[in-house]
Amino acid sequence: MILEIARRAKTASKTLALISTEAKNAALVSLAEALLVSSGELLAANAVDVQAARAAGLSEAMIDRLLLTDKRIGNLASDLRHLAGLPDPVGQQFDATTLPNGMSLRKQRVPLGVLGVIYESRPNVTMDVAGLAIKTGNAAILRGGSETINSNRALVKIIQISLGANQLPADTIQFIDSPDRALVLELLKMHDYIDIIIPRGGANLHNFCRQNSQIPVITGGMGICHLYVDESANLDASLPVIFNSKVQRPSACNSLDTVLVHKNIAENFLARIVAELAPAGVTFRAEPRAAALLKEQDPALVQPAGPDDFDTEWLALILGLKVVDGLDEAIQHIATHSTAHSDGILTENNENAARFINEVDSAAVYVNASTRFTDGGQFGLGAEVAISTQRLHARGPMGLAELTTYKWVAEGSYTVRT
């Protein structure tokens, strides 16, 4: 099963790599329209998955990731149209030069080839990957979680029909239509046909892929995200940033997990954070110094932080609180506990902001802004196939350019090496 899927994907990728930008854009627009037309079918399939997820006791964070709504389908369609309007990276030329022997030399972008994308809970990933793959001339093999199987069946059916209607290979986007985990292991061995593996999920999935894959793996998508509130910060302006980072969509990987507060402002500001976020349903895990300053709070609202709490991606309305002596301790805490996803500083001190930018080694570093912006759409990329927290081959939201590699092109006049 997997071998045949991989072979078909490789064949499709070779055809798709030569498709014109106009044809790819037309397919994306057509797919956006097909999504809207088929929204009833999609919602019905998704409802089956959501009902099963609730019966299985999945957390509300996981169910939120799984859920499709009319608004979310509309956003997916809008993202596809936006992708169609973005420049096509394939064929772009850069770093051109002329050598002393007169030969011209340049780099030229080409598709990666075949993407193997393994993900959990999020049917929106199916459309994001499909759109980005089509635009960049890549084929993709998708393996979603068992909890999304009905949603993904419906989505991939729409994608393949739309591809065929636009004279693009239907095998451009394929779906492993089985929850059998043994198939994932088989997929990871298809190095002759698949060029890159992109897991989107928790640490266990990432570790499994790294340990078992014979194909290069790009990991990311797990975020333990921090904001450090410097003593110079505008505290009135900081509260809405903290609120947005935590509450706007707590199940997202770029939602806030820990607030670090300078000791000189902690006594009053910690209580203000609790007062601001608690009405939205947020509860808190406080380390001893923070807990001492919040001892008058309801114990059900503010609990002592456990030994693993600062290494936990909450994906829920839970926020860690810690008092730090200053910027040095904040940077050290982030270096120890961050997953290198999204971390920020709230400050009016330009020197501290510059130090934070230079010393915090995360894929996205923020000054006076919400961590919720680490997203392909918000960064103007149209969508993302993943958020990479490693160094090679891409870092941060992986949009169009990150799904290409390049070749060297040398043009001479029957030039020979002497």
Give a verbal description of the structure.
This protein is α/β, with parallel strands linked by helices and 418 residues long. It folds into two domains: 2-218 and 398-411, Aldehyde Dehydrogenase, Chain A, domain 1 (3-Layer(aba) Sandwich); 225-373, Aldehyde Dehydrogenase, Chain A, domain 2 (3-Layer(aba) Sandwich). Helix content is 42%, strand content 19%. β7, α10 and β8 (256-262) form a beta-alpha-beta unit.
Instruction: Profile the largest sheet.
Output: 7 strands, parallel
Spell out the helices and strands N to C.
Answer: HHHHHEEEHEHEHEHEHEHEHEEHEHEEEE
Kindly estimate the percentage of residues that lie in beta strands according to DSSP. Answer: 15-25%
Low-confidence stretches: none
Q: What is the average per-residue confidence, as pLDDT, rounded to a whole number?
A: 95
Strand order of the largest sheet: 10-9-11-8-7-12-13
In total, the number of strands is: 16
Q: Architecture of the largest domain, according to CATH?
A: 3-Layer(aba) Sandwich
If helices are DSSP runs of H or I spanning 4 or more residues, what is the number of helices? 14
- Assigned CATH superfamily of the largest domain: Aldehyde Dehydrogenase, Chain A, domain 1
List the topology elements.
Blueprint: H1 2-16, H2 21-37, H3 39-55, H4 60-66, H5 70-85, E1 93-98, E2 104-111, E3 114-119, H6 123-136, E4 139-143, H7 149-165, E5 173-175, H8 182-187, E6 196-200, H9 203-212, E7 225-229, H10 235-247, E8 256-262, H11 263-277, E9 283-286, H12 288-293, E10 302-304, E11 318-324, H13 327-337, E12 342-346, H14 350-359, E13 364-367, E14 387-388, E15 396-397, E16 404-411
Parallel strand pairs: 3-4, 3-6, 4-5, 7-8, 7-12, 8-11, 9-10, 9-11, 12-13
Antiparallel strand pairs: 1-2, 2-16, 14-15
